[in-house]
Amino acid sequence: MSQLGLLPRRAWASLLSQLLRPPCASCTGTVRCRSQDQESLQVAEPVLTSQLKPHQEKPNFIIKTPKGTRDLSPQQVLVREKILDLVVSCFKRHGAKGLDTPAFELKEILTEKYGEDSGLIYDLKDQGGELLSLRYDLTVPFARYLAMHKVKKMKRYQVGKVWRRESPAIVQGRYREFCQCDFDIAGQFDPMIPDAECLKIICEILNGLQLGDFHIKVSDRRIMDGMFAVCGVPESKFRAIGSSIDKLDKMSWKEVRHEMVAKKGLAPEVADRIGEYVQCHGGVSLVEQMFQDPRLTQSKQALEGLGDLKLLFEYLTSFGIAEKVSFDLSLARGLDYYTGVIYEAVLLQTPAQARDEPLNVGSVAAGGRYDGLVGMFDPKGHKVPCVGLSIGVERIFYIVEQRMKTSGEKVRTTETQVFVATPQKNFLLERMKLITELWDAGIKAEMLCKNNPKLLTQLHYCENMGIPLVVIIGEQELKEGIIKLRSVASREEVAIKRENLVVEIQKRLSES
Amino acid sequence: MSQLGLLPRRAWASLLSQLLRPPCASCTGTVRCRSQDQESLQVAEPVLTSQLKPHQEKPNFIIKTPKGTRDLSPQQVLVREKILDLVVSCFKRHGAKGLDTPAFELKEILTEKYGEDSGLIYDLKDQGGELLSLRYDLTVPFARYLAMHKVKKMKRYQVGKVWRRESPAIVQGRYREFCQCDFDIAGQFDPMIPDAECLKIICEILNGLQLGDFHIKVSDRRIMDGMFAVCGVPESKFRAIGSSIDKLDKMSWKEVRHEMVAKKGLAPEVADRIGEYVQCHGGVSLVEQMFQDPRLTQSKQALEGLGDLKLLFEYLTSFGIAEKVSFDLSLARGLDYYTGVIYEAVLLQTPAQARDEPLNVGSVAAGGRYDGLVGMFDPKGHKVPCVGLSIGVERIFYIVEQRMKTSGEKVRTTETQVFVATPQKNFLLERMKLITELWDAGIKAEMLCKNNPKLLTQLHYCENMGIPLVVIIGEQELKEGIIKLRSVASREEVAIKRENLVVEIQKRLSES
Question: Is B24 in the A-facing interface, judged by CB distances under 8 Å?
Fold first, then answer.
C-alpha cells in the first residue's frame, strides 16, 4: 500500500536498527597530514594563517548543540528519509501539493494564535528592521499564505522544522527543534468530507509505518465549549479549563479536578458536572447517547458538533476506519485556533509490550478544523475554512529508536555499488579514468583517496562498507584490455573486456 | 547519467516551465460555507468564539513574509525537489552520507569564522539561557559536528536552509533565507585527490542540470597570500585586499585598484604589482609560467600552492574535466576559513544568450579547502583537514525561472492518477468505499468533496488537473457489479468488473 509497506518487514526493521549507533567515520586511507605539512613550513615570510587567529585555535567554551537540539547522524538521516518518504507519498496519494514557507515570520503573525503556549515562541534579536519569530508550527504560516496570496481552495502538504522553547524532555523524544509533517484541506466543501479524509490519512500513515495498533480520539470544540457552558463554566475560563482537561491523558481525573478548583477557581459542583462528561468515551453510540443528554442538548453549539460527529462516523464507516476512532470528551487540544472537530492518534500497547518497553510518547498524529484562522490575516476578514493534521514524526523516530534498541543488524548508510581497486603501485590515474566511466554512467562508485593503497585494505573497505562489487585494474589487465570484476560476497572474480565494463556492471546490479 | 539526465529534455523543460506562475487553488466544489453557518448561530448562550478574539479578526499590519524571504508555490517546490534530487543523487553516487544539524548554533560557534560578513549573522533574542544565532552556512556546523563527535574521516552531504541578513537583491536570485547543498570530504588523504573529486562533482551536477556551458575558476589561498607578501602588502591588510580582489568579477581592475589605494590605503606601486597577477588566467600552462616567476617563487607558500595546483590539473585530466577548469589569480573567495585550493563555477553564455537574456547571477557552485576549521573547535586543537563544495541552488532556481519565463507548457503539481466520479445523486458513500479501495492499493486518487457534484464538473476537474483516468460508478453499475473506466484524453469508456478494478487500473498505469 505504501513504499515502506512494500519492504519486507525484516528489511524495514533492519533499516531502522542502526538508529542508536553513534555517528562513525566513513572514509579510510591516510598518508600525509596536510596540517602537519603546513605547520612545518620554513617561514621566510610572515606566518600566513591570519584566517586562523592563534587565540581562536582552541575554543574557550563547550562545543555542543543548543539546548533541546541535536545533530542527526547519517543513520538517523536515513531513517528519517524513509519515514518522511512514506508520509509524503501518502499525502501525494490524496492529491496534495507541496508548499514551503520561511523559517521565520513577522512576530505579529504568530501573536495570539497559540494560547498559553505563546511564551514558547523563539524571537529573533532586533538587529534593525522587522521584528521576527521562528515559526511555532506549519499551520499559522499556511493560513498566512492563503490570506496573503488570496488562495480560496488548496490541498497542501508541508514538511519542515518548527521551534518551541519547551523544557526539553528528550527522553520522551521531545526537542526544541523538531520536524512537522502537515496536510491540510482549505476551502468550502460539504460538511465533514475533508475532515473524514484527514482521519483516513492518519490511519494510512500509521498502518504504513507498522508501529503496531493505534487509536484515534475525536471530539469537537463546539461540543467542549457547549459542555462548559451548560456545566456553568464562565466564558472567561473556557480556555484555561480546556487546558486542564487536555492533561487527562497524563493525570487522573482527581488531579485535574483539583487543578480546576484550587488553581483555576472553578466551583466544585461545576467541576463535578464536567467530570461526568469528560470521563465518557465510545463510538457513534456515545454520540447518540449525548443527543439524548438533557443538559448538553441545551447548547445549540454542542448540537451542531454532535450532528457533525454523527455524519463523520458515517463517512469513517465508508472509509473502513470507524473501528479505529472513538468519541472522547476528554480531548481538548491546546491550540487556540481550532473551531470544530479535533482529533489525536495514540499508539496502543499490548499488556506484554507495556511491561517490556513502556512507551509514553503522547500523540503521534493530531489535528482539527480551524475555520477562523485565515480570516484573521485577511484585510476584510474573509474566512477560508480549513481542516488538517500533523504527523508527530519526531515521536515516531523516538518510538522506532526504542523498538530497535535490541536489534543489531547492519544497515548501510551509503549506496555505493562498485569499488575501484588496484593491486599495483602508481596506478592512481588509471583508477581515476576508470571510476570516471562509472560515475558518468550513473553508477555509484568509490575508490580510496590514496596513491598506493594495499589491495587487502581496499577489499576490507568493501566488506566493512557493504559494497557488493569490486572492479580491479592492474598492469596486466591494462595491457590485455580487460578488467577483473569481483563479487565481495562470493569472492569470485571474472575477467571481462574493458569496453563491456559498464554494461556488465549494470546487468549485475539489475539482477541483484 | 543522472536522474534528470534520463528525462527527455522536453519533459525537463516542460517541468520547469511552470515556475513563474502564481500559486493557484487546487480543489473545486463548494456548497455550504461553514463559517457563514457559524455566524448565523442563534445564540442562547455566550458567543463561543473566544479563540478568535473579535479585535484580532482583522489584522492591523501588513501580511507579508519577512524582508528577503518568500513562500515557494507548489510549482516552485516541485522544481526545487527535482533539482535537489539530482544534486543529492550525485552526492550519493560519490559515496556520501547524509547529515543534519540544528538551524541555530551557540553564537560563539559562529564568531570569527566569516570575516567581513560576520555582521550578516541573524542572532536570536536573549530569552534567558544560551545566546544563539541562525546558521550562516553548513560548513561551520559540519566542522563543529566533526570536532564534537571526534569524527576524523567522513564524506558527507547536507541540504538545508541558511540565513544571512544581506541587503536583498532578489532580482538576482539572492535571498536572506536560502537553501544550500554541501558536499565535503573530511580526513587526511593523499594531496589533491579529494579536491579533484569535488571539482568532478561540480561538473557532474552542472552537466546534469543542463544549464548550458560553464567554467570553473581555481586558485589557492597560499598562492594569493604568497602573492600579497611578495608584492609588499602588509600582513594586516591581507583579508581586506582579498575582499577587494574578490570583486573583480563585478568591477573593473581600475575600480578595484582605486578601492585598494584610496579606501584601503595600499601603496599604488603595490597595487600595480598585484594587478599584474590578478589579471592572469589560464590552464596548467599558467601554473608552469608562475613556477618561473622570479618574484612569486620567493614565497614558499606560493610554491606549495602551485605544486598542488599542478597535481590537481593532472587529476582533472584523468577525470576528463581539465578543459572546464582554469587557474585564475583573481579568485579570492570571501570566507576566512579557507587554507588551500579554492574554486568557483560560473555559467557561460553564448553572445546571443547574453543579448537576449543577460544573466548576472555570480557563481553557481563554489568551495575550497579548510584545514584549520575543525581544530578551532577541538579542545586540544587537533586538526581534521577538509575540502568541500556548495551548490548555489537558489541561483540555479533563478536561472531556470528566467529561462522558462517564455515557455508556457502545463506541468502538473499533483500526481493524482485516478478520479472517482458519479453521475448520480446521493452516491457519496459509494464513492468513498470505492476510493478507499484505490488508496489502500497505493493508487493516487481524488474525488470532489461534495455530496452531489455534477458529472460535467467532475470531468472538467480531471481535464484541468491532468488526471488521466476516471472511475465512474452509478446505480446501474452498482447493481451489475461493474465500474466504468474512462480515459480522460481519448474519452473512451470501458466497463470492467468491480473486483478487477485495482488490477485493471494498475495495468493501465504501468503501460502509460
Answer: yes
